[in-house]
Amino acid sequence: MTVQLEPTPDHVPLPAGFRAAGLHCGLKKNGALDLGLLLADEPVGAGAIYTQNQLVGAHVTVCRDHLARSGGLVRAVLVNARNANCATGEQGIADARHCCAQLAARVRCPVEQVLMLSTGPIGAPLPTERIVGHLDALLEHASIDGAMDFARAIMTTDTYPKALHASGMTRTTGFAKGSGMIHPNMATMLGFLLTDGAATPGQSVPQLLRAVADRSFHRVTVDGDTSPNDTLVLLASGRTRSADLEATVTRLAQRLARTIAADGEGATRLVTIEVRGARDEHEATLVGRTIATSPLVKTAVAGRDPNWGRILSAAGRAGVAFPAERARVWVGPADVYSGGKPHPQNEPAAHRHLTDDTLVTLGVDLAVGTASADVWTCDFTKDYVQINADYRS
Q1: How far is the C-alpha of 386 from the C-alpha of 393, rounded, in Å?
Q2: Given Cys at both, which of 171, 189, 245, 266 links 15, Cβ 3.0 to 4.6 Å?
Q3: 374: β partners
């Protein structure tokens, strides 16, 4: 069963000044799209956040270098699926640089204004000939209508493409790829945010991205594991100015983060962990992440068991001090623990919530302050095991 928060759109608009494309270059089976391109009409301000894994994909090294050398300007982003180009040594880095150079020559921009990202199984050499051999066709396909092709091209075990748009004083479009190896150690995935807005004076594009990520992609987890290739990129053309750009991009990023959790491998429930009554937002987020990562909590949801003890126990090991006897725990509309005691009479309502609703809410009030945070995860099912047991076959 797939949890899909919003119907897959036929078309997602791009902000002015951006084009996108996706095509099949032979990496995926059955002709599925596997090579994507984001193209700006002119160099735009950019920022990126990467995995904190000690093992990093070749593209992370190249992207860091290119953004430093370009002064944070990007003209094109190339993405391949079905090959992570990770644990491939110096040759993997050279292969990524070669693909960037070939695209830069075609776009007529400095090579450092091209980023390349890869996703897929670890350890295989990057098939550079297939990728480079399709760059001309990829550029020919690039258009203002290419967003959904790009979204499909970056998918791995995703069951549907993740592309969303928000418009107002500024226009913002976001893409994400991810179903497994998802955890807030950057928020495991590939993510792309495009906006025609400009960061506020005194705030750089990387600073804007960090603020957005902390309230969105850093609050999503599927399985507590992290990928060596995690990367989140923000491209901002600066064509329009809006005082609420950060809020607009954050809301869009939160919607994308929720789609990642909803499409978690084998998931049947999107789970929102609501933490209330914390001293500050950091502590609320830490407690939420701990509950969201707990296999015991996630398997209880899969079994439709409103096991409040697992929720409270997970909160108790998060490293945040709070009086457990004053805490409150809820499952959907049902108060299952408060006043230092459980409320078994409310568990039937909690069970119905887990059984009938695909959008599940679990909550805890720490009773030590007024700060809050939401974290998103999914249930942990037998299908997750099967998907990952068969991942490379």
Answers
A1: 11
A2: 171
A3: 274
The CATH class of the 18-258 domain is alpha beta
Distance (Å, whole) CA 51 – CA 44: 23
Q: Candidates 3.10.20.340, 3.30.565.10, 3.40.50.2000, 3.20.20.70; correct CATH number of 270-389?
A: 3.10.20.340
Whole-model pTM: value is 0.90
Question: How far apart, in whole angstroms, are the C-alpha atoms of residue 122 and residue 222?
Answer: 19
Q: The tokens 């809050």 sit on which residue?
A: 372
Give the number of residues written for the chain.
Answer: 393
HEC secondary structure over 288-354? HHHHHHCHHHHHHHHCCCCCHHHHHHHHHCCCCCCCHHHCEEEECCEEEEECCEECHHHHHHHHHHH
**Cα 341 to Cα 343: distance, rounded to the nearest angstrom:** 7
**pLDDT, tens digit, 9 for 90 and up, residues 232-248:** 999 999 999 888 999 99
Token digits of residue 134: 């399709």
Alpha carbon separation from 71 to 12, 212, 233, 319 (Å, rounded): 30, 21, 15, 39
State the Cα–Cα distance between residues 336 and 344, nearest whole angstrom: 7
Query: What are the counts of helices (DSSP H) followed by strands (DSSP E) for the chain?
Result: 12, 14
Enzyme catalytic residues: 188
Query: Quick check: 187 pLDDT over 70?
Result: no
Q: For residue 7, with 0-12 CB atoms within 10 Å meaning exposed, 13-18 middle and 19 or more buried, which class applies? A: exposed
8 A C-beta contact, residue 79 and residue 153: yes
Q: Tens digit of pLDDT for each residue in 282-317?
A: 999 999 999 999 999 999 999 999 999 999 999 999
Structure token pair of residue 31? 């002709």
Mind spelling out the 3-state secondary structure of 128-139? HHHHHCCHHHHH
